[in-house]
What does this fold into?
Amino acid sequence: THWKHGGIVGVFGYGGGAIGRYCDQPGMFPGVEHFHTMRVNQPAGKYYTTDYLRQLTKLWDMRGSGMTNMHGATGDIILLGTTTPQLEEVFWELTHNLDQDLGGSGSNLRTPADCLGSSRCEYACYDTNALCHFLTNEYQDELHRPAFPYKFKFKLDGCPNGCVASIARSDMSFIGTWKDNIKIDQDAVNKYIENDAAYPANAGAHKGRDWGPFDIQKEVINLCPTGCMKMDGKELKIDNPNCNRCMHCINVMPRALKIGDVRGCSILCGAKAPILDGAQMGS
Ligand code: HEM
Ligand code: HEM
Ligand code: SF4
Ligand code: SF4
It folds into this structure.
């Protein structure tokens, strides 16, 4: 199979969005002589109406294989498998009838991708959807016409939990953060310590197994990467200037600890995932 992320096939005026796949032995595999992929720009936060999804899958059933990947590693809606003559047809339908654009591939800017942020998540430190949508519009030209010698990616996480893994997946990652203090509800901290059933650790996320009674020292304080937490009698103390906002304690005791109120976003340029070292912070 020949594979290429933009270039060998495409739609008029765009330098990416259609990813060519040609089989070298079409005689042996007649159904998949061409099996091109189309990257479709997913909406910020990946919110859809069922009506839109029906129209999209109907279009792809008619003009492609019917197979999709919701969503690809780059963030887009991936429509897997069509032939060269169908590319313009799909593009026309998308842009004229579905109010929908292609995403990036090849040396284009990639479709910016974000977590759902403040639209649903209490940890969001900024409106990821607004910023993702803005960047998508602002850099339309770069998204469709390769401006660089290689791809470039923006990814946007609303908080350091990194649900879209922006550091590993992009060149410029946006990560929500705060600079005042973690808000502590001491009564709730003690409910966790007392193993109150209404206060399950990790919001009950791992309750499929019996982990024994919750132990704040072992599960929270000792795991704080900067060692900035301690119990003072019945009171939990956090040395906030030394907190690096890793989210661990908040994830474990979400009813007791909340992100601060002075919120913003850290921008890391050059975030990368080198093969030997794993994901690294941008420089
Ligand atoms: C030796 C052959 C191939 C190589 C080396 C290769 C390599 C790659 C690489 C590096 C990516 C990017 C991964 C990512 O974005 O996470 C990719 C994505 C993709 N490949 Fe392949 N590929 C090959 C064959 C194929 C074939 C035969 C097909 C289809 C029949 C295919 C379909 C795709 C699609 C649809 C994507 C985008 C997936 C997404 O964004 O979720 N590839 N491929
Ligand atoms: C352990 C090694 C590797 C890992 C973990 C890895 C991981 C990834 C990931 C996660 C993406 C998708 C990024 C996104 O979200 O958009 C990607 C894309 C890609 N990788 Fe790798 N990769 C590895 C090695 C390689 C190597 C050795 C090559 C080339 C020889 C390669 C070529 C590509 C290409 C061409 C794409 C982009 C395809 C596109 O979307 O245009 N990768 N890789
Ligand atoms: S990255 Fe943070 S804000 Fe975004 S969905 Fe995940 S936990 Fe919520
Ligand atoms: S967010 Fe992380 S670094 Fe900050 S106090 Fe909690 S566990 Fe420690």
User: Anything to note?
Assistant: The chain has eight helices and 13 strands. The chain has a mean pLDDT of 92.
